[in-house]
Write a structure and sequence with these properties.
This protein has 375 residues and is α+β, with helices and mostly antiparallel strands. Helices cover 31% and strands 25% of the residues. Strands 12, 13, 14, 15, 16 and 17 form a 6-stranded antiparallel β-sheet that branches. The longest helix is centred in the C-terminal third of the chain and has 19 residues. The structure holds adenosine-5'-triphosphate and magnesium ion (3 copies). One magnesium ion binds next to strand 17.
């Protein structure tokens, strides 16, 4: 029997649509001769629904929207292993007697051998889904609970990177409670520590959502307010001008393989914002046209960053390269990087001769390997 892969996508985060674009490529890439695939879309409220679509014929494009009225499924451990269950549709939330024949019965949709959570941001990339999968005993692609939680939280990630001695941009933190008590005091404190421009970011988001470039007190105030709409912690960073953005792909468990960095060249936007990432044509240069020693520094830092947060499976490590001072700074790590046709992770591997289908196959193999070790 072929191993059965559960592909999870959509989800509660503001990166729901990005996840649908990533998942389409993953569903297209999983080899049907090796694996059976079952596709579950998570709604914006967190309900798991069975997706009726088959294997997409092309990698590009999105998936049908996750239906708000689709049938609810769940994953449970049973006497015969982890199974996907279809819940009776007409059970009232909170109904005590779920086995009442009139209310239908739970239907066993079969065993699940491995999960590929193709989810970005909160409730997907942050350890929560990973915790659910671990607790029901389903091996999964990517970082474990602790590594995911550290990597997704820019404040914790920066602490861990600093402890590993990785070079980073100067930053500070604003907490919602302090901001609500004394916004003027917080603004004055930040202005005493960092010069404009600065970037404001919610601590736990992705796809540049909630990120602003601020050039004066009023835009800083607006940037903090906006980011506080996503998280109770906001990161304020010194803004780097004239910077080049390099990103390395990493895959593997104990001895990960690291690509040469690719470069994102965004001519229109003032930074690599959401529109530049997904709505406008973006230029990806793989590998980046930078000196060899810059490539080597990126690879070296990527390996250290991966190890520092305890990542497994895959990650993308993002850098700032300042050509004038010849500095490479680590910006962040993403443990479920975008896998859309516009994303950097697939082409940095293609540039080294690893086709997308081969890459996805390896990720599933690394997940099985990691679960066998921990057993
Ligand atoms: P991802 O989609 O990669 O997960 P993210 O939402 O986690 O993104 P960052 O990668 O931290 O956010 O920042 C998004 C973009 O904002 C960067 O790619 C860069 O263009 C710009 N940016 C962020 N921080 C800075 C900075 N300190 N100086 C200059 N530009 C920055
Ligand atoms: Mg990120
Ligand atoms: Mg991200
Ligand atoms: Mg980034």
């Amino acid at each position: 029997d072929k191993p059965r892969v559960l592909v999870l996508f959509g989800g509660r985060s503001s990166e729901h649509e990005v996840s649908c674009l990533s998942a389409r490529g993953v569903l297209w890439a999983i080899d049907p001769d090796i694996y059976d695939v079952v596709s579950v879309g998570i709604t914006r409220t967190g309900r798991w629904t069975l997706m009726p679509h088959g294997v997409p014929r092309t990698r590009e494009g999105t998936l049908p929207a996750v239906p708000e009225d689709g049938e609810t499924v769940t994953l449970v451990q049973t006497r015969v292993g982890p199974r996907l269950m279809l819940l009776p549709d007409d059970v009232d939330a909170g109904a005590a007697d779920v086995v009442d024949a009139d209310r239908g019965r739970t239907v066993d949709l079969g065993g699940i051998d491995i999960c590929f959570p193709v989810l970005h941001g909160p409730y997907g990339e942050d350890g929560t889904i990973q915790g659910l999968l671990a607790s029901v005993g389903v091996p999964y692609v990517g970082a474990d609970v602790a590594a995911s939680a550290i990597a997704v939280d820019k404040r914790q990630m920066k602490h861990v990177f600093a402890a590993a001695g990785l070079p980073q941009v100067a930053h500070d933190v604003v907490r919602r409670a302090d901001w609500e008590r004394d916004p003027e005091g917080e603004l004055a404190r930040i202005e005493g520590l960092l010069e404009y421009p600065v970037f404001t970011k919610p601590a736990r988001q992705g796809s540049s959502i909630g990120i602003s470039r601020c050039t004066d007190t009023e835009s800083l105030r607006a940037g903090v307010e906006d980011a506080l709409g996503y998280d109770r912690v906001v990161i304020i960073e010194r803004g780097l001008d004239g910077v080049r953005e390099l990103e390395c792909g990493v895959v593997g468990n104990d001895d990960p393989v690291i690509t040469a960095p690719g470069e994102t060249i965004h001519t229109g936007a003032s930074f690599y914002d959401f529109d530049a990432k997904y709505l406008e044509p973006v230029k990806l240069q793989c590998p980046a046209d930078v000196p060899d020693d810059v490539i080597e520094r990126c690879r070296d830092y990527a390996a250290q960053a991966y190890d520092a947060v305890g990542a497994r499976g895959l990650a993308r490590v993002d850098f700032f390269y300042l050509p004038d001072s010849d500095e490479v700074l680590v910006n962040e790590i993403n443990t479920i990087p975008g896998l859309t046709p516009q994303s950097m992770f697939p082409p940095v591997w293609e540039a080294q001769g690893v086709a997308f289908r081969v890459l996805i196959d390896r990720l599933l193999a690394y997940a099985m390997e990691a679960s066998e070790e921990s057993a």
